[in-house]
């Protein structure tokens, strides 16, 4: 029998506490469809996800304690995960409740699947491989009924940190998203902005940019981005949008906001999956498909460039790349990672 | 060597002293034993090393260039002796040492070369601002100048400026004048503001809520205290609070260089004050901020210093290192 002790069971990479005890997104709620086993890789660990009859999402090691077969190759029957090899049945508490080769015997107490902490929030499924040191970061608009929410992705990137740093960088808009989030011939100069570290969160003052196709309403706007870095692989912006054409300004409202909650799942040190939840409160509300069409375009434009960045592992030592004050948030992000002791996927 | 230098200084001849306005004289300095002075851009100043050991900073007026530099000095009876010497003891023909020009108050283009510009000057603070006005005019940019003074007779260039529709003279003797902060509040929020004037005026501007403006406020504090001893003017001591280590920083060294030489693991990247990687909390002392990462308002709030380029106004800085 495989040793059930949690540590040392697999050839695991060394993952520092900042990531091991953090919540990571491993799927959208939609990806966790009832009756379906979802193979997942998080930080090089093979996991299996599934949703029970009560609607509760579970994330386990993708491993049968009996002979080490992949549970994700099995199936779900009677609200139980069935191993593809000898048909051992695991219930929603991860306890083996049936060994078909000895159907009348009560399975041993140790016959359990290896569970990880699992939660659902903001249309996303989160798992923690260690013991959660924090709650899942806050996304206030999720609970605000005046906001329409749309979950987008998955988008594949190499470095999740490079993807996140790109997400918090408005100076690439005129080039990577020319004609959408910026104008290549007329890039916005970025005046100095403030970055604060408070309660373990990095946040900026508003950064103003011109966007010819600034939101899914497909109208030119002046956008004011306020960013937050919530966790090493979770970031957020709240964008204030002002319709730039004075003739149509009346169609907008001073309260118009477009928010994006960004997450990156590290598959391994140089592969990651980005999933985001957008929240918007303006009229007219775009359809889910309209929101996704735009996000799919923008993130495809991003990954085409971000995946060319070298080294793939982001340098958290600020001496290793050149920075400018317009990169202040990205630069503070790297220092923040460095100070947290994040080494996995960094150099 | 094209220039005659003494410890990085240029030798100059005081070629002319002219009356500027009541209480203000203009001094023309020409190269003493070299062909030319270094070129000048608007907002720059030079250090004047006076024979009595005083070192004073003066902004360069518009006609300054390789052929000669022009400064304006206001007599300040309550001052620390520099203006008094220039007004009483200086004689045409004297040799003086000056530094090469430095510019901490340059016109910026990072907010867009076409950003509207608001110039604010109080009293003798007109000197760098007047040079900026000329530069803006040469570039064909739009600007507005507000200039405060006690009376027209005491305002340098009041004659030339009074006829310009882009200029508003606020003369205290003529009754109520707006505060500088009111002028900024009424101006376009996109406008870049350049201000030079008395401490009270700049403090008032520094207190404005920067978040309400997309344009920035840049200030030159011409009354910054400068140590009397010329040798101490450039050197200072840095105390590292966590270890108690005291490190001298020489006139030609940066704080960063000194710490690197000592093998300290400090973060930095650009080494020229444009990135913010080397930002360190300053626990005590008065930094002389020379970076472009934060505005003066932010520096006042954040109490940090970019150690790659910034220096100390006093003899000592205590850093959170």
Q: Could you list some keywords that capture this structure?
A:
heterodimer; A: 347 residues; alpha+beta; eight-stranded antiparallel β-sheet; six-stranded antiparallel β-sheet; 5 helices; 14% helix; disordered N terminus; B: 321 residues; alpha/beta; five-stranded parallel β-sheet; 8 helices; globular; flavoprotein (chain B); iron (chain B); oxidoreductase (chain B); FAD-bd_FR_type (chain B); metal-binding (chain B)
Q: Mind sketching the topology for me?
A:
The complex is a heterodimer of chains A (347) and B (321).
Chain A: H1 17-20, E1 24-28, E2 38-42, E3 45-51, E4 57-61, E5 75-77, E6 80-82, E7 89-90, E8 96-98, E9 115-121, E10 124-128, E11 148-157, H2 160-167, H3 173-176, E12 195-198, E13 201-204, E14 207-211, E15 221-231, E16 234-243, E17 257-268, E18 271-280, H4 288-306, H5 328-340
Antiparallel strand pairs in A: 1-10, 2-3, 3-4, 4-9, 5-6, 6-7, 7-8, 9-10, 11-18, 12-13, 13-15, 14-15, 15-16, 16-17, 17-18
Chain B: E1 5-6, E2 9-21, E3 24-31, E4 45-49, E5 55-59, E6 69-74, H1 82-88, E7 95-99, E8 117-122, H2 126-139, E9 143-149, H3 158-162, E10 167-171, H4 180-186, E11 192-196, H5 199-206, E12 217-220, H6 230-234, E13 236-240, E14 245-249, H7 255-261, E15 279-284, E16 287-288, H8 296-302, E17 304-306, E18 311-312, E19 316-319
Parallel strand pairs in B: 8-9, 8-11, 9-10, 11-12, 13-19
Antiparallel strand pairs in B: 1-2, 2-3, 2-7, 3-6, 4-5, 4-7, 13-14, 15-17, 15-19, 16-18
């Amino acid at each position: 029998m495989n040793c059930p002790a949690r540590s040392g069971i697999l050839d695991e990479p060394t993952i520092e506490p900042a990531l091991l005890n953090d919540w990571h997104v491993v799927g959208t709620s939609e990806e966790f469809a009832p009756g379906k086993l979802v193979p997942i890789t998080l930080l090089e660990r093979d996991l299996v996800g599934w949703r029970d009859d009560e609607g509760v999402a579970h994330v386990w090691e993708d491993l049968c304690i009996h002979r080490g077969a992949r549970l994700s190759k099995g199936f779900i029957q009677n609200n139980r995960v069935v191993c593809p090899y000898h048909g051992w049945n695991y219930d929603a508490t991860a306890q083996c409740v049936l060994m078909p080769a000895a159907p009348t015997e009560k399975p041993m107490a140790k016959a359990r699947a290896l569970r990880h902490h699992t939660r659902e929030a903001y249309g996303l499924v989160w798992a923690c491989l260690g013991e959660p040191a924090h709650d899942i970061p806050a996304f206030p608009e999720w609970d605000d009924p005046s906001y329409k929410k749309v979950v987008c992705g998955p988008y594949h990137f190499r470095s999740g940190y490079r993807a996140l740093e790109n997400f918090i960088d408005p100076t690439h808009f005129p080039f990577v998203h020319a004609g959408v989030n910026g104008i290549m011939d007329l890039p916005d100069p970025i005046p100095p902005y403030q970055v604060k570290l408070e309660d373990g969160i990095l946040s900026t003052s508003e950064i103003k940019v011109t966007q010819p196709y600034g939101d899914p309403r497909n109208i030119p706007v002046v956008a004011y981005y306020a960013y937050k870095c919530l966790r090493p692989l979770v970031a957020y912006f709240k964008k204030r949008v002002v319709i730039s054409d004075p003739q149509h300004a009346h169609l907008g409202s001073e309260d118009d906001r477009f928010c994006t909650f960004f997450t990156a799942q590290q598959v391994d040190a140089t592969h990651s999956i980005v999933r985001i939840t957008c929240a918007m409160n303006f009229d007219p509300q775009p359809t889910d498909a309209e929101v996704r069409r735009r996000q799919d375009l923008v993130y495809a434009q991003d990954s085409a460039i971000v995946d060319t960045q070298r080294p793939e592992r982001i340098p958290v030592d600020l001496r290793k790349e050149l920075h400018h004050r317009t990169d202040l948030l990205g630069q503070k992000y790297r220092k923040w990672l460095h100070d947290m002791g994040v080494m996995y996927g960094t150099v | 060597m094209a220039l005659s230098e003494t410890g990085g200084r240029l030798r100059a001849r005081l070629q002319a002293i002219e009356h500027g306005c009541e209480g203000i004289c203009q001094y023309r300095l020409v190269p003493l034993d070299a062909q030319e002075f270094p070129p000048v851009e608007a907002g720059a100043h030079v250090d004047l090393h006076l024979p009595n050991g005083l070192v004073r900073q003066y902004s360069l007026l518009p006609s300054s260039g390789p052929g000669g530099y022009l400064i304006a000095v206001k007599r300040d009876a309550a001052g620390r002796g520099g203006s008094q010497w220039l007004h009483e003891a200086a004689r045409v023909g004297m040799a003086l040492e000056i530094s090469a020009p430095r510019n901490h108050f340059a016109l910026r283009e990072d907010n867009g070369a076409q950003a509207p510009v608001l110039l604010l000057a109080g009293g003798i603070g007109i000197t760098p601002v007047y040079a900026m006005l000329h530069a803006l005019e040469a570039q064909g940019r739009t600007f507005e100048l507000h200039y405060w003074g006690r009376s027209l007779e005491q305002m340098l260039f009041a004659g030339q400026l009074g006829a310009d529709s882009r200029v508003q003279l606020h003369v205290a003797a003529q009754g109520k004048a707006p505060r500088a902060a009111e002028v900024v509040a009424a101006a376009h929020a996109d406008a870049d503001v350049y201000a030079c004037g008395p401490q009270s005026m700049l403090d008032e501007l520094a207190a404005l809520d920067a978040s309400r403006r997309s344009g920035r406020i840049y200030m030159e504090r011409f009354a910054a205290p400068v140590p009397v001893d010329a040798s101490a003017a450039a050197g200072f001591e840095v105390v590292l609070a966590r270890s108690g280590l005291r490190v001298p920083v020489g006139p030609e060294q940066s704080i960063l260089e000194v710490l690197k030489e000592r093998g300290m693991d400090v973060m930095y990247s650009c080494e020229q004050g444009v990135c913010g990687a080397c930002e360190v909390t300053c626990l005590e002392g008065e930094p002389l901020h020379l970076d472009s990462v934060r505005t003066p308002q932010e520096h006042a709030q954040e109490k940090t210093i970019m150690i790659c380029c910034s220096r100390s106004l006093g003899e000592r800085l205590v850093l959170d290192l």
